[in-house]
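ugh finaly. both done.
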Amino acid sequence: MSAIDEGYVNFDINDKGIATIEFGHPLSNSLPGKILHKLATTITELGKDDKVKVIVLKSAGKRAFCAGASFDELISIKDFETGKTFFSGFANVINACRKCPKLIIGRVQGKAVGGGVGVASAVDYCFATKFASVKLSELAVGIGPFVVGPAVQRKIGMSAMSQLAIDATEWQSAEWAKEKGLYTEIFDSATEMDNAIETLSNKLANSNPEAMRLLKQIFWEGTEHWDNLLKERAAMSGKLVLSDFTVNAINAFKKK
């Protein structure tokens, strides 16, 4: 099985109405197109499920939250439409989070890169450990954080987003991410983080669903044009990924 075909998205709903979505991939929880599609679909479906009161979004393992785009899939793209479709997968996940009427709590246990930072930015309330440093590495491989950019900018502001986007090879610490507003709280261990997530999700499960739905609408005011905006951004990346510069840069990264 190729890396493009590996990975999974699972979910469960407990008796309190707390839905937990977990995605995983053996390559540091990277996101091939199939996983992106399943993740967006799962978020959308749980948002429509009356049994669900709140959603927790997490990834598998202990070390990495999400390595972003699958390099194996990026290097396999040979035409514009395929590239646009792949990057639209990230757009669909972000828009699924945005449109979901349920509040989404993020659990970031380790490093987040590129699209992983986008996912962390698209949730409504994000917990992290002290190991959850962040990096927008897209420019280093000849692309740019075009699709995730609006979500990251909305969360941490243009100045901090541009810092990440321009200095594309440098990590910023979890403390930095908390200071900028990406993370609401950071913890010394995953166990402490999970206890805090359980406490908050239980509180929200007992809150008025309609009040939470309306509150989320307010949080995301001004993003109604994102369906088209993120498609346009996906097209930018879909074109750039075909360039010789990007192909050579991705191959160099894969050899490291």
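ok and the 2nd:
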Amino acid sequence: MKYEGMIYRPPSEANSLILQITVGCSYNRCTFCHSFRDKEFRIKSFEEIKEDIDEASEIGTIRRVFLADGDALIVPQADLIRILDYLKLKIKGLERVGIYANAVDVLKKDVEELKELKARGLGIVYLGLESGNPEVLKRIKKNATVQQMIRAAERVKEAGMLLSITVLLGIGGVEMSRAHAADTGKVLSEMDPDFVGALSLMIVPGTPIEEELRSGRLVLPTPFELIRELETMITNCRFTQCFFASNHASNYLPLRVQMPREKEEALSLIRQVLEKKDPELLRPEYMRAL
């Protein structure tokens, strides 16, 4: 497999074959993101992708494939269909293909186009919401509004695909902490995804948000303030059926919650931690990572 630069994938795709069909991120201006700053965006040629698929086909049974990099759904529809069809032809035992997408790219495709991709094996879309607060989205220079995010989520679900949403604890700083958490919970409820992954903001050197931190324009919440955000977010979530996880390595309090069945149990645990404020109950700082 001929990967270019560092490759990122969702935690749930740990056992998937990672197929890089784009290099980098076409937008690449979110203030907190460091993942693709060293890459010049391009869409790989079909011949490059075909060569990787041919190589992967010799491995044995592969049940899942994840299409990287940052917003691989930007690939033109005909080319995506060609890639998916070739995957189905060559990868025996393939059950599901996943992809990173942003709201703008989702909305460039109508429901029928998304259904066409679903019929060819694209089963799950990973979408970064980060925050449901409009002011926070502007500050971090996200390339979509709250309403665009919601519409994109609706379109993915209407196409019959699974939807996984990522949110960031702490991204509003201390100033916007409560509004960020409450609004994010409410927007997640409107999206009603199948999965939610809550990560905690970790500042990477060289990102624009690092400069905000240095200048004092951004003040990071404390570990227990981040857990308060988690409590507020979950309190405001109303899901039909959703697996909500905060077990990413960046988080201080790992949780895996089946919503709505385990919601109150999770809130009870969080409130106990907040009441005790015992650092021993949190993931140690040295164990946190991106």
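summary for the 2nd one i guess: The CA atoms of residues 57 and 91 lie 5 Å apart.
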